[in-house]
Amino acid sequence: MKSIFETRHATEITDRIDRLREDSTPLWGTMQVSQMLAHCAAFHDIPLGNTFPPRGLLGRLVGRFAKPMFYNEKPLPQNMSTIPTIVIDDDRVFETEKEKLKEQITTFQVRGPDQCSHHPHPFFGKLTPEQWGKGIYKHLDHHLKQFGV
User: Fold this and answer.
1) Where are the domains of the chain?
2) Pick the CATH number of 7-146 from 1.20.120, 1.10.3470, 3.30.70, 2.60.40
3) Name one Pfam family in it (predicted).
4) Which of 42, 50, 140, 144 can pair with 86 through a Cys bridge, CB separation 3.0 to 4.6 Å?
5) How wide is the angle at C-alpha 1 spanned by C-alphas 112 and 16, nearest 5°?
6) Residue 23 in contact with residue 137, Cβ under 8 Å?
């Protein structure tokens, strides 16, 4: 499984981000491309230790059983629910969000897995840095495929 902490995988992701255009349209879902970029950046703020969303009741009850879906080889399902605090429904500036997301990917490379936050995922709970790395890659891959890149 690919990981955002592997340089070649991070490069692949940033190359795909660079292929997005401001007028890219989703193959599924309702987010605009700039909202998707902002959503991914908001998600990254959790393992980067910038935000600490609380765990919901459903996550506390079933999150640990569903956790492997975050970092296994199977693609994430289309239109799956998301963490409420990272739903982006306002207008965003495409280039600003694109650069922020690419900077975060660089930050993951510079910091490495040892500096990944120990704060639990709001649904899946405690994750190892290795699981975070795979899950971050998988989440980005999911949304880039959503926009055809």
Assistant:
1) 7-146
2) 1.20.120
3) DUF1569
4) 42
5) 75
6) no
